[in-house]
Design goal:
- The longest helix is centred in the C-terminal third of the chain and has 16 residues.
- Helix 3 packs parallel to helix 6.
- The protein has a domain of 156 residues: Rossmann fold (3-Layer(aba) Sandwich), CATH 3.40.50.
- The chain is built from ten helices and eleven strands.
- It is an alpha/beta fold and 253 residues long.
């Protein structure tokens, strides 16, 4: 039996947008250790969906599996109606899923501009790439100021901006964001979350993994709570944030 079958639900009915991403009974192992234990979830077109939970809950592993970096032992990942479970990582990028990973993983010896070019490495539409480059520099004006600077010399907040901007250069239909606020000062956390909302408002669907659960629930439409690799709770992000029992159990309230 999958973990989803015992998942509790709370809040309002889900929106009626087209299902863009569907995960069914996903099981992922590291050797003999089960990191993800049969989870099922959906992301609908135009949503911000967040995965929240403690360290080791399986959140980052789920994103890495969606983006093809890890192959599941069981279950399926369907994107825009196509099974992408066994597709290569670059094939998944071509399909429209781009990933801003935990820890930023920018190329430190390359300039900001070169990092952005790497985000578009599978594209050959020169005019479109130039348009998207201008778009991400409007989203993150600080990067325009640092455009010729080595990425490794940027501040932590600037590196996070670059990681998101680089992912956006793939022109994703679905943007995977893994811990975008990690290690940032509060003022930069606010900026990153404001920008995530702007990206969604401009037409990109987002699946967000975030330790700052209250901030994530503040911008998300729908949320899934992971615990020890299994889904324990799902529902409207607003209702989850307002639920006293959820706050005590999962949000440190």
């Amino acid at each position: 039996m999958s973990a989803q079958s015992s998942t509790s639900q709370t809040g309002e009915a889900r929106g009626t947008g087209e299902i863009l991403l569907k995960i069914d009974d996903l099981q992922v192992y590291y050797g003999a250790i089960a990191a993800v234990k049969g989870i099922s979830l959906e992301v609908r077109q135009g949503e911000i969906v967040t995965l929240i939970g403690s360290n080791g809950a399986g959140k980052s592993t789920t994103l890495r599996t969606i983006s093809g970096l890890i192959k599941p032992r069981q279950g399926s990942v369907t994107f825009a109606g196509k099974n992408v479970t066994t597709m290569s990582g670059h094939g998944i990028v071509e399909a429209g899923i781009c990933h801003s990973p935990e820890g930023r993983r920018i190329f430190p010896r390359m300039t900001v501009d070169e990092n952005l070019d790497m985000g578009a490495f599978l594209r050959n539409d020169k005019d479109g790439i130039a348009e998207d480059r201008e778009h991400v520099l409007e989203l993150f004006p600080r990067l325009r100021e640092r455009i010729a600077q080595k990425a490794g010399t940027l501040s932590g907040g600037e590196q996070q901006m670059l990681a998101v901007a680089r992912a956006m250069m793939g022109r994703p239909k679905l943007l995977l964001l893994d811990e975008p606020s990690m290690g940032l000062a509060p003022v930069l956390v606010d900026l990153i979350f404001d920008t995530i909302q702007t990206i969604r408002d401009q037409g990109t669907t987002i699946l967000l993994v975030e330790q700052n659960a209250l901030a994530a629930l503040g911008i998300a439409d729908y949320a899934y709570v992971l615990e020890s690799g299994a889904l324990k709770l799902q529902g409207s992000a607003r209702r989850l944030a307002e639920d006293d029992e959820v706050t005590r159990a999962y949000l440190g309230g």
